Amino acid sequence: MSVDCVFCQIIGGKIPTKIIYKDNLISVFEDIDPIAPIHYLLVPNRHIPSLNEIDAEDAGLLSHLVLVAKDFAVHTGISATGYRLMINTGKDGSQTVDHLHMHLIGGRKLLGRIVS
Ligand code: 5GP
Ligand code: ZN
Asked: Which residues of the chain have pLDDT under 50?
């Protein structure tokens, strides 16, 4: 838990946000500024600043993030049409919240290349 971290505050219930899914490892909620009809954030409950702080011990956490994202894709009906999972990291990766998170984006045709 980091007191000045917006995602820690959301997970801790200090910023009112509808948590759509939560288990012992991760929480899922909608992005406040969605770029597509489906735009979820999958967030470890533990404060991890970015992918740079991940090591081999976190392999289970990372695979869990991907598997839950896939389940969300199925249950929101976008698995057949397709979707994108994205983990922005650091300054050049345009990471704006320094708490590791994965975007699940879909429900419209996304550009074929990762944009700028
Ligand atoms: P990043 O650019 O770091 O990969 O993505 C951070 C995402 O968090 C952005 O898409 C932004 O819209 C979202 N976000 C920032 N603050 C909040 C918030 O308070 N609540 C929610 N639900 N999403 C947020
Ligand atoms: Zn945090």
From this structure: none
